[in-house]
Amino acid sequence: MSTLISKWTRPGVSFFALALLASAQAQTAGTPQTPSVQAAPISASSYVTVGQFYYGQGNFQRAAVAYGAAVRANPTNPDALLGLARTQTRLGQSAEAITTLTRLTELDPANISAHIALSQAHSLAFRQARLPGAGDIQLGPVAGGEGNLAAALRTLDAAEKVLPSIPASRRGTEASKIWNERGYILRFQGNLPAAVRAFEEASRLNPQESVILFNLAETQYAGGDLRAATATLQRAVLAEPRDGINRAYFARLLAEGGNFAVARPQAQLAVQLAPNSAYAAGQRGVVSYLAREPRTAREELERAVRLAGGSYPDFSYYLGRLNLDAGDLARARANFADAATTGQNPEAFYFLGLSLERSGAGVAAEPVRAAEAYRRALELRANYPEAGEGLERLGQ
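RE: above sequence
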């Protein structure tokens, strides 16, 4: 994974950034400028620097303003276009990012970073095409967005053709980024063995890149190889010891393997390293749930959902399990409904069906919706006897 951001260490740079940002916002709004002395125009590179500053802070709205001003100052500046597109992708504006990056790749066909970013924008568009509407649960088969994956593969093919023309010292690193993106697309296509091979090739080319190791571990885990996934994540933790995200996932995998003695302190350290991370908090919650520590599990899972803005399907699933165990059907249903919004988790659909099948204080059973949820679980996992038994109980 390539990064655009350099870290700022000089004092006062944020004031410089704010001043330039104010100028950019004034231009965007069409505010007339009436200085007593005609000021020299601000360069695109200055706005790019401001965009990098705000992007590095995670303030993507301000980064978009700065990069937009950079593009207006110089419509062919590659750093401005690439920064704007990456920011658009982070803001979920996949169509705008695709337009910006298509323009950049036409201006600079040899720009590997632009091709990789374009692939990422197409991948985002694919994911967005498969998301249900707000408040909806995807009960039928998920479809749509395949054209975006085909386009993503084409742009990676174009990036690969550029590799022979770049210095040999950079070739391995750039090739690893291409293979990493191929792994993502193969996962989206459901081809886990090929995705594992792609991430393994990326890691061979760039063995110390923890992002690639994380992706490889996730894919190994999705394919059912917990032991390999845990070993891969351990490499990622050793490569980046202060990365709370890698360590949080490592703790989760250790817990799933039953090694709670090591998983607990790893999860606690992860939230210390990344105190405002919904992912780190949620994984500590999962570790606590698996270790049968419901109080800590609930605290951390609820914190993760709050930090994520109210929805985090993976962690909502475990909150649902806690609420179902406690007999709180209303909350359990809401949790499992959030967990099911991805349309890809058979367990979320099964437990949603189970919570809908039951009734409790002030909560009526909903057998029709329960049956729909059980059927969706079976579509995702044909060999799911518990879901089949649920349908039998409902006379389906």
